[in-house]
UniProtKB/TrEMBL annotation, chains A, B:
GO terms for molecular function: carbohydrate derivative binding; DNA binding; DNA-binding transcription factor activity. Residues 138-279 form the SIS domain. Keywords: DNA-binding, Transcription, Transcription regulation. Gene3D superfamilies: Glucose-6-phosphate isomerase like protein, domain 1 (3.40.50.10490), Winged helix-like DNA-binding domain superfamily/Winged helix DNA-binding domain (1.10.10.10). This is Transcriptional regulator. It holds the Pfam family HTH_6. GO terms for biological process: carbohydrate derivative metabolic process. Residues 14-90 form the HTH rpiR-type domain. SUPFAM superfamilies: Homeodomain-like, SIS domain.
Amino acid sequence: MTRDVKEIFGSPVGSLAAKVRTLAPSMTRSMQRVAEAVANDPAGCAALTVTGLAELTGTSEATVVRTARLLGYPGYRDLRLALAGLAAQQQSGRAPAITTDIAVDDPIADVVAKLAYEEQQTLADTAAGLDTAQLGAAVGALTGARRTDVYGIGASGLVAQDLTQKLLRIGLIAHAHSDPHLAVTNAVQLRSGDVAIAITHSGSTGDVIEPLRVAFEHGATTVAITGRPDSPVTQYADHVLTTSTSRESELRPAAMSSRTSQLLVVDCLFVGVAQRTYETAAPALAASYEALAHRHRTNPR
Amino acid sequence: MTRDVKEIFGSPVGSLAAKVRTLAPSMTRSMQRVAEAVANDPAGCAALTVTGLAELTGTSEATVVRTARLLGYPGYRDLRLALAGLAAQQQSGRAPAITTDIAVDDPIADVVAKLAYEEQQTLADTAAGLDTAQLGAAVGALTGARRTDVYGIGASGLVAQDLTQKLLRIGLIAHAHSDPHLAVTNAVQLRSGDVAIAITHSGSTGDVIEPLRVAFEHGATTVAITGRPDSPVTQYADHVLTTSTSRESELRPAAMSSRTSQLLVVDCLFVGVAQRTYETAAPALAASYEALAHRHRTNPR
DNA sequence: TCACGGATGAAAGATATTTTCGGTTCGGTG
DNA sequence: CACCGAACCGAAAATATCTTTCATCCGTGA
């Protein structure tokens, strides 16, 4: 046979349409119909069986197989796999382009995509902007602390609790305070060697600044986790950990991205401390996991 | 026009590895072997027939088909097509970034980078795996609810509180419960038209399942947010929202990524509800922002 | 130890793909 | 105009592949 059949299985599939055009002249009428269908709608054809494609093009299975052969595949099965790949590439090629704000009439799928994208963005920004020296210093302070108090209100209060839960798990003594009065009352107890952490996005939440100030004045090592590195809270902070602030919109208040950002910082603190106290932290983590096992119903299998 | 660009043939293609991770715990040993082979080498497996893959993994055809089913495909044939698509994407697109686990002696900068990367991964996986139909249904239920109760314990308890805070801000009546007894006591009060949401990564936390069951039996619409779509909690859930499970390591327990995942789902719920009740939600959001203004010290430049 | 329930694979059954083969069309030819 | 041959085409048989069923096996808990 003089025509040189080039093996394209495993080579870029993007040339399929071109190949169809090249080979079209040497095809019989029915084969052209099949080839055309395949070139026009790879994804759709990938979903069809030989019989289906034969019916769609008004031809027979044999013709479909012959066409597949002509296009360089061992049979229809392999053409179909290649089509699936092509379809996937086309799909992924289309950039989601989710740069716009979330709109009131966005379908739910868009909401998911946009939120996920924005939170990813927030994480990247936070990681990029985080001062590792400050972080390291904060970790150092936590590692040697006699006790640690964490202040946060509203959404930041949950982050404070999250940090506290984690620190407790590795054997540190930590408390979260969201009641301003109790926070101050406790802050008075702190002294050198203790750590106080304030979490506030705006950096100007009085109820959180106040206990930090008291802790600061009593000699505790103070840390601020805030999105505004020039805000009042930093005034009383030995170490400032900056969270990133992303675009906010009406349907996505700042609290949402700041929470993501704060949690990343908190996780970094936790892992940092766990590293430095690995000898005690690892068994403590294992133990707390163990202790909870019986609270879970037997796993179905 | 369908907005689900990730979907081909009804199954998300981009998240296969994530899906394997999510479902792995509920798989039998042999099925895990098959799933692992598929996740490790999509391209290679796409070239194999059922029999071939069965031999490769040392199992039987039946097991391969069962695994394909579990992964959400009608049969092996469709899994194979999806694999071909995945392979094409991987080959053409970016090489999948491989990160190592966080090690005890990683410098702090690496810790930040790895954590941020893994959380981003978790977000992407969650978004890809989230069933928008279920999400939409849950949003619909929340929108018309007389009242909403949210159950969560430990880290999930914080997520429950986060959701509650948000819903309250847009004028819904919502409560978070982390005390199992109080939760059940309150669940008894629920009736048709009310909504109960259980948040549990393992899906088998008895203290969270119990109130959901009670709510379910009293006619409330029930929602489960869990990383195990086949776990006991789903038994009493009208709508199941699946969070993704990422690789966990000693220094990065599962709780960390599950929290990220859960929060994304919660945010989606919130935004969804806010969209549908925009007329009342927007002013409510503005009002709550307004009310807090005086609690912040005047902002310095 | 035994009984039980789920996990597993061998083989039967169903479907899809490939091959075979004979009918049909079409252009050329006597 | 009748005939011939070659290529085209599709129905159906043959084969490969996938799916389902069912008996066995294995681990588990009493």
